[in-house]
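Summarise what follows for lecture notes:
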Amino acid sequence: MRRAPEFEERITGAERIVIKIGSSSLTGKNGEQLDPSKIDTLVDLVATLRKNGREILIVSSGAIAAGIAPLGLLARPKDLALQQAAASVGQGILIRNYTQSFARYSLIASQVLLTSEDMVRRAHYKNIRSTLFKLLELGVIPIINENDSVGVQEIRFGDNDRIAALISQIVKADLLVIISDVKGLLSRAPSELKSANEGESDGQIISLVKDFSEIDHVTISGPSSKVGSGGMVTKLEAAKIAASGGTSTLVTNLDEISTILLSNLSDQGLAHDKSLGTLFLGGEEKIASRDLWLAHASTPRGKLILDPGAIAAVIERGSSLLPAGVQSFSGDFSAGESVELADGSGKVIARGIIAFDSDEIGKLLGRSTRELGEEFGAEYGRELIHRDDLVLL
């Protein structure tokens, strides 16, 4: 079965690429130790891409996995404190291997460690963008990872797939590449194939996804290795985040990635009868950077339940949210923080930046802005969330 032309066009035309590589691709499924030869394979590819004018950022898992063997552990620890210890040991090993490997090409790698707080705070988010663009300008290759050694459970992303998707939006990447231990999205989950006594074949890889509704029928699997924390679920979520900003996402494995990304440098190009991975096309309408941050990077501190009229105003007319349209709320939040907007069943329809503290909200709900202004003063006679501070989900 031949691939759609978009598969090759989106990849060969990408000038700025974010490459995310998972722990299992750097260590193997059992994760006994970091494999330097796999880092070399990735670095060889990046060096070639750089030589041909591409800008590359790497989001690399593997810190916890790299720390397992030196600490004498037999598997990825489940205890948070032990995970942090393994990450602290493994991060140095991981970046040392990248630095040494890139030195073979006289290329400089930098270490960028992030926590979710760096993404959810708008000022930090903007600082990340400035730093990454400066590194690219200087010809440095950023090696980005979640700071597992200090992040507590409440502020962790949980998987680098989401970080990679957010980074792709911050730097306005043309392509996000997620390297995993699987070749792509299967038309049936591995558990279904196993129960049917079938193996992976080219015909089971979905080569191109133009719209995510096309794969509503597909069973999505979780982690397939002992050292990873994601699985196809997080890769699909990452692809959706990237697509909302216009970035296409390629999911493939380490064995195929060079063949795909370097196809425009080969006289033969790509073999159209071979499944090399899954490409999720980016959307044509790009969401503004601030809205992407609000929708995917911010951490909601509360939830507002809207009545049907307010829901229609927000969704259909793009209106601001007024106090009269809110039935109830939950959470402890301050003005300027992110909150969710939901319907009567609790389904979240939007996120927004609230203009009042949670301890003030109770006296405002269900009342008109004119009434509130007359009773409490002009500062209370305004919207709870301005339309410019609101994004639909």
User: Anything to note?
Assistant: The mean pLDDT is 83. The first helix runs from residue 5 to 12. The longest strand covers residues 16-21.
